[in-house]
Design a protein that fits this description.
Rossmann fold; Alpha-Beta Plaits; six-stranded parallel β-sheet; 11 strands; binds adenosine-5'-diphosphate
Length: 222
């Protein structure tokens, strides 16, 4: 990984919802992108937004070779609904020795196959979004990111017991085992929280900690 340049061009295969979002955001970040889709209409549609778009069937390794896919250091396989295509495309990229392959999976077994073939990173967008929503539906959290090891980062309004107090007085760490990382007052930018930061009614806070501790903290309510 460390020998790959941070700004290396990215090959994106599939311009469905996921691939188009990936390619569009990479482009916005100023990265060079080559996006491939077998659907001519989609290629046309995205040709204005993304640096390079090509119509090709990525199941065909010769087509990939001609496009220069083997020169890329990073590829994203954004084909999900056809597991067969996703698997063949990933295998082609492995054969072309693309060193960093990201592939989207629609199920755990699909992901397992992709890993066995040689995908370096398997993404489960639907499962991840679904799990996130489970934490958000209570309405207590505005955003929720969970990392592998049961550690989360959450955006929320401050629960009532900590409002109007600074972080030492409210004892967020000692009582609730979570850390307030940042605070945003209306109309102001986010600032890092310190022991003397006072959290007010209309502030937004970013909290880190064990997912279960954050759930308990959020449940203290308004
Ligand atoms: P999403 O759910 O993100 O919309 P899909 O799996 O439905 O993803 O979309 C996959 C995209 O990949 C479609 O635009 C489709 O045309 C494209 N695609 C599928 N198979 C191939 C292939 N063999 N070569 C190139 N593009 C492909």
């Amino acid at each position: 990984v460390d020998r790959i340049k941070h700004d290396a061009p990215v090959l994106v295969i599939g311009l469905g919802r996921f691939g188009a979002a990936t390619a569009g955001e990479l482009d916005r970040l100023g990265r060079e992108v080559l996006a491939i889709d077998e659907n001519e209409g989609l290629v046309q549609k995205w040709s204005e937004r993304v640096t390079h778009t090509v119509q090709a069937d990525a199941k065909n390794i010769e087509a990939l070779r001609q496009i220069g896919a083997g020169e890329f250091q990073i590829a994203v396989v954004a084909v999900g609904s056809s597991i067969e295509a996703s698997v063949l495309i990933t295998a082609n990229l492995v054969d072309l020795r693309v060193p960093q392959i990201w592939a989207k999976a629609i199920s755990r077994s699909h992901g397992k196959i992709l890993e066995r073939i040689g995908a370096n990173h398997v993404i489960y967008p639907e499962a991840e979004a679904g799990e996130r929503v489970a934490h958000l539906v209570s309405g207590r959290m505005l955003d929720f990111i969970e990392f592998d090891d049961d550690f989360a980062l959450v955006k929320m309004y401050p629960p009532k017991p900590i409002r109007g107090l600074n972080l030492t007085e409210s004892g967020v760490r000692t009582k609730y085992h979570v850390t307030v990382v940042g605070v945003k007052s209306p109309g102001k930018p986010f600032t890092y929280a310190t022991e003397s930061t006072v959290v007010s009614n209309h502030d937004l806070i970013i909290v880190s900690g064990k997912s279960s501790d954050i759930e308990t903290f959020a449940a203290l309510g308004n």
